[in-house]
Amino acid sequence: MSYGPCQFPTLGFVVERWARIETFVPENFWTLEMSIKLNADGSVTNNQNGNVYNNQQQSRAINLSWKRVRLYDRPTTTIIFDSCLEAREAVVTSLAGRPKNKWRPVPLATVELQKRASKYLRIGSEELMQKAEQLYNEGFISYPRTETERFRPEFNHHELIQSFQGVTGEFGDYASRLLTNNNFQNPRAGQNDDNAHPPITPAKAVDPSSIGDPIQRKIYSLIVKHYLACCSRDAMGRETELTLKIASEEFVAKGLMILERNWLEIYQPFERWSTGQGELPRVAVGSRMIPTSLTMKDGQTNPPQLISEVELISLMDRNGIGTDATIAQHITTILDRNYAEKDGNQRFSPTKLGIALVEGYNSMGYQLNKPDLRREMEAECTAVANGRKSKEAVLGPVLAKMLDCFKKANEEVAKLDRAVERHFSKLGSNNNQYVLVQANFSLCGVCNGMMVLKQKSGSGGGRGRNQGNASGSTKLLHCQTCSQSHIMPRYHTELFAAVKPGPQREPIICPICQYQVIKVENDGNSSHVCPKCFSDPPEEHGGDISSDFPCSKCTHPTCSLATGTRGGDVEVFPCPFCSSNGNTESVFLKRSSNGWRLSCSNGGRDRCQFVVWLPKAVRDISVDGESNATICQACSNPNKTVRKLKFVWKMGSVPPHYGQELTACVLCDNHLKEDMDIRIPSINSVQPRSRAGTSGRGGDRSSTYNSSAGRNGGRGNNGGRGGGPSTQGIQCFKCGGPHYASACTSNQSGNNNSGRGRGRGGSKRTFGNTNSGRGSGGIQCYNCGGPHYASACPNKR
Q1: Complete DSSP assignment for 82-111
Q2: Which of 140, 149, 160, 704 could join 611 in a cystine, given CB atoms 3.0 to 4.6 angstroms apart?
Q3: Is 143 designated active site?
Q4: pLDDT classification of 792: cutoffs 50, 70, 90
Q5: How far apart are CA 603 and CA 606, in angstroms?
Q6: Alpha-carbon distance 11 to 51, whole Å?
C-alpha cells in the first residue's frame, strides 16, 4: 500500500463517484408530456370529431416537453394536469429560428487524444500512449506528448493535406475536396501552449490499412481525421424552437436542420450532430390547436454511472493532477496496485482495498483523496516558474504541510487498520477460502493454544497431509482462539513445528513474540521462521516490512537461530573482483554457522568468490550505514565508499590492549589484519569455481586464499586428502612466479618461522599463524617476557 499526491486523488475521484452511487436514494417524480400534429405548411391539424387524444389524421407529429421538466409532488402535478385538460386548447406563443454552428475541434493535445481514444476507440490511456510512442518512433505521427493546442503561423498545412490526396479512400477524397472551393480554413487556436512541441498531427500520409498493428491503425486514423477536421469549416445548421401554452403551463419543442456538414463528414462515425425532430414547420404565432395527446407520467431518479476514463482524465487535468505525460501512468498505478478496476466500457470502480485506504486516510483529518494539496503545490510551482515567488518562499510551507500530514498519518495509523478491517474478513477465518491441512500444528504466542495449518482452496492441499508447496500457493497458521492468522513462506517442500533435540521434544520458542518456530524444508535446504516475525518483522532486530523476515535475518542476541547482522544491508565496500570485470556488485557483512564473513552480493550461478573470513574471537560485528564517522577516509574516494566494522570481542579472547570494542577498516588496518589473521584475497589468488570435473571439496577457507598455514588442509582433486589446492596454472601478479600473490617472497610482511605480525604495543609478538599451524610459538608476554599472553601472566597487577 502506498500514498502519492497524484495517485491518491486519482483514486479519490473513483471512490467519490462510487460513494455517490452507493448512497444514492431514488426519488419519485411526475412529469407532463404533450404532442401535436402540424401540416407541412405549418397549418394546424385539429380534431374534427371531438376526440382530443386519438387524432388519426396523417400529418407530422411534434413532441413537446414540459418547461418545468418534473415535480416531486404528485398532488401538485395532478392539479396542474387537470387544469390543462380543462383548458383543452393550446396557443402558440413563439416560434424562433436562428442559425447554429457546430465548431470544428481545436488542434490535438495529449490529454484530448487520451479522452477521444477512450470514448471512440475504447483504448485505455496507458495502452494509447504506448502505441502512440511506437507510431512516433516509426515516423507516422508527430511527438504524442504535448500540451500545445495551436499551430505556429509558419506551419505548412497545404503541403501536408496535399500529401493525403494520393491516399486512396476517404482520406484522399476529403483532402481533394478540402483544397477546392475554398473549403480549407486555418485551424482554431486552443488555450494551451507548452512552447515545446506542436500539436499532434500525422507526419506522413499513408493508407491506414498498411499499418500492421490494429490498435496503431485505429489511433493513426483518429489523428488524421482530427487534423483534417481542424482544417475544415464549421458545420452549419438552423435551429427552431416552438413554444405552446395551455392553461398556465408552457411546453417546448426543438428541432435542427443541418445545412452544411463540413468537418462532420470526415469525423464520422465518431462525431454526430443530433437534429432532434428536424426543422419544425413554420406555424403562425397565436394559432390555437388541440393537443393530440396530453399525459402525466411518473418516474424515478437514477444514480450516476461509474466514472468513465474520459471523465477521470478531465477531472485530473482540471485539478492539476499529473501532466499530459503522467496522467496515464497515475491511472495505471491505481489499477496495478489493485485499488480500482476497469470494465469493458472503460468505467472504473474501486476495490475494497481502495475504499478502505480512502476511508482510513480521510479519518485522520486531512482529506488526502481530494486534489487540494496537489493543486496548491502545482499553483506554487507555477508561481515560481513565472517569477512571482522565489523557491525559498514556496519550499518551506509546502514541506511543512507535507511533514504535518506524514506525522499525522504515523500517529493515527491504527485508523487505517480499522478501515481495512471493516472491508476484509480476517485471514484464514473463511472456511470457504482455506481448507485444513493439519490440526494442532504449533503453539500460538498469544494464548499458548495450538494453531492449525491451512491452505488456500484449490491449491492442491489435502486434509491431514502437510503437502509440498512448490507451486507457491498460500499456506497459513490460524489460531481459532485469537482469530489471528500468519502467512507461511510460499515455496517449500514441507513445514514442521521446530522442537529441541532429545526425547522431550520441547518446542523452540521465539524469544521476541513467544510463537513456536517453524522449520521450512525446500529441496533439501532448511530454514526457520517465526510465524509472527515473518509477517510482522521487528524493526529493533533488523526487520524490514518491505521483505520477508526468516530467522536468518534476525539479530536477537540470545536466539541461536538468529544469524542476522546489524547493518547487513549496508555496503561495506564495492567488490574488487566484480569491479575488475566491469560489474557493480557490493560486499556485505554476513553471518552463518561457520562464523562472520564479508562476501560479495553476486550469488548467482557464476557467483563471485570474494570472501573475507572474520575472527572467531568476536561476540558481535555490525556496520553503521548512517554515520559518516564509520567511513574510512583512507580507503574511500569519490567513486567508492568503504565503511569500518565495529567488533565486539568475546571476554578474554583478545589481547588486553584491544579493549572490549574496536571500530576499524579491514582493508587498511594492518595491525588488525595481522593480529587477527584477516586475509584479503587478491584477484589472481582465487581459483575459478568449477562446476564440472572431479575436483572435490576444498579445505577450510582454502578456496578464498592461499598460504602455508594450517587452513589449507582439505580434499584433493581426486577425492583424497591433500595439503592444499593445486597450484597448476597459478601466476603471481607481483613477480610472475608459480604461487599466489599472498605467498610471494617480495611481500614486505610475509610468513616466517617464528610467527608474524606486530602487536599494537610496538614489540615483536604474534597472535596469528606459524608455518606449523595456528600454534603458540612466538608468543611473548610484555610484562615478564614469558611464552604466554599478558592476560595470563602470573605477575600481572
Answers
A1: HHHHHH--EEEEEEEEEEEEEPPPPPB-HH
A2: 704
A3: yes
A4: low
A5: 7
A6: 59
- Summarised one tens digit per residue, pLDDT across range 321-364 is 888 878 999 999 999 999 999 998 899 999 999 999 998 888 88
Cell reading at 757? 605480525
316 and 125 in contact (C-beta within 8 Å)? no
Length of the chain: 797
Main-chain dihedrals φ then ψ at residue 349, nearest 5 degrees: -130, 140
Tens-place pLDDT, residues 249-258: 999 999 998 9
Distance CA 672, CA 678 (A): 7
Q: What pLDDT, in 10s, does the model give residues 61-114?
A: 899 999 999 999 999 999 999 999 999 999 999 999 899 999 999 999 999 999
Q: Are strands 90-102 and 348-350 parallel, antiparallel or unpaired?
A: unpaired
Among 3, 120, 136, 143, the active-site one is: 143
User: How far apart are the C-alpha atoms of 310 and 112, rounded to whole Å?
Assistant: 9
| Cell 493525403 -> residue | 164
Q: What is the DSSP string of 406-454?
A: HHHHHHTHHHHHHHHHHHSPPTT--TTTEEEEEEEEEE-TTT--EEEEE
3-state secondary structure of 235: strand
CA distance 637 to 640: 5
Q: Which three cell numbers stand for residue 159?
A: 503541403
Please measure the distance between the N-terminal and C-terminal CA atoms of the chain and give it in whole angstroms.
63
- 464 pLDDT above the threshold of 60: no
Secondary structure of 494-531 in the HEC alphabet?
EEEECECCCCCCCECECCCCCCECEEEEECCEEEEECH
Query: Mean of the pLDDT values across residues 256-264?
Result: 91
